[in-house]
Amino acid sequence: MKAVLRGWTQLAAEVRDFEFEAEGVERLTFTAGQFVSFSAEIGGKKITRAYSIASAPNGNRFHLCLNRVADGLFSPHLFDSAAGTAVEMQGPLGTFTIRDRARDMIFVATGTGVAPFRSMADEYLSSGGPARITLLFGVRYEENLLYRADFERWSAGHPNFRFEPVLSRPGESWRGRAGHVQPHLLELVGDRRDLHVYACGMKAMVDDVRTRLKELGFDRRQIVVEKYD
Ligand SMILES: Cc1cc2nc3c(=O)[nH]c(=O)nc-3n(C[C@H](O)[C@H](O)[C@H](O)COP(=O)(O)OP(=O)(O)OC[C@H]3O[C@@H](n4cnc5c(N)ncnc54)[C@H](O)[C@@H]3O)c2cc1C
User: Which residues share a beta bridge with 50?
Assistant: First the structure.
């Protein structure tokens, strides 16, 4: 299948939300949290990369949230593509999806790792899901809080959704959480051992989250992860 780039929005420095249309179908069927696999010929070689879908299922349109990796191959290629460009696509694929819709959840993301959680939270809240979702989202600077307006709107409109941003390099006016996400996760978990924790982002953070939760006695089935590297 091909996906046609319809446009993009700059979310932060070197981060964009790209809107695509799945060509030739009325609906792109997927479970929130899944990714697509994109391929293109770059420098005479076929390069394939995975990207989490950042929007809830909605006809044949879908969004991706990409970081331009300096010296990378695929991400700069996509940033340089014009609207109307068709990209070879496989999927949606993957099992990073809500396991138990009745169970309270903590979503832990850093950087563009927030993409699948935007899809999962949007789909879950719009379908009236009753469990509590806490989104713990770590970035460097306040301006890197991708999709902040959406998360703040959802937290204002849904008593079961809580948005907890964390800045590793906060400005002087920041009154919220600071540092890395891990200690904040442990504080949010407290003495609860019934939660499901989902973590997405770079390996170092995801592995550390998993180790710390296991030390607390969490079963491996309560920890669901997606690693970007
Ligand atoms: C299941 C899955 C879902 C993914 N979803 C997304 C997504 O939604 N958005 C996204 O931007 N990337 C996502 N990635 C990462 C993506 O597939 C590519 O690895 C990334 O775009 C870099 O590819 P590249 O060809 O530009 O760089 P490469 O030439 O492959 O360089 C790889 C370098 O980029 C680093 N890297 C990988 N991903 C990122 C990132 N997001 N931010 C900063 N550095 C990174 C790696 O550590 C490595 O050092 C996902 C990966 C997987 C496995």
Answer: 37
Residue 116 CA, ligand 1 centroid: distance in Å: 14
What domain range is 110 assigned to?
Answer: 105-227
CA-CA-CA-CA torsion for 164, 170, 174, 177, nearest 10 degrees? 30
Per residue in 7-38, pLDDT tens? 999 999 999 999 999 999 999 999 999 999 99
Look up the pTM and report it: 0.97
Q: Which residue has the tokens 């340089």?
A: 80
User: Any alpha helices (H) in the chain, and if so which ranges?
Assistant: 74-79, 115-126, 148-157, 181-189, 203-215
Same domain, 109 and 88: no
Do 110 and 213 share a domain, yes or no?
Answer: yes
Please choose from 18, 62, 229 the residue to mutate so as to test ligand 1's pocket, defined by most ligand atoms within 8 A of CB: 229
Neighbours of 71 (CB within 10 A): 6
* pLDDT single digits (tens) 165-199: 999 999 999 999 999 999 999 999 999 999 999 99
Closest CA to 155 of 137, 140, 173, 177: 137
Number of domains in the chain: 2
Indicate whether 118 and 41 sit together in one domain. no
